[in-house]
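S2.1 Query sequence (Sporulation YhaL family protein)
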Amino acid sequence: MNLDVPFWIWLVVAGIVFSAYMTIRTNREEKEIEMKEAEMEGAIYIERMEREKEKRKQLSSEG
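Output structure tokens follow.
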């Protein structure tokens, strides 16, 4: 088996592996950020719904 490959080919292979690793890592971080944002938006939505429910309850008890 001949491993007499030019040095630049090893650099290219290393660059491809590093690029793949960084892509996967960045993808995971972006998914985590999106999930946190979705959770925050959901919590805000639920809070608004509860406030609206209280408002309606107060209006119906006054009328």
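The CA atoms of residues 54 and 60 lie 10 Å apart. DSSP finds one helix and no strands in the chain.
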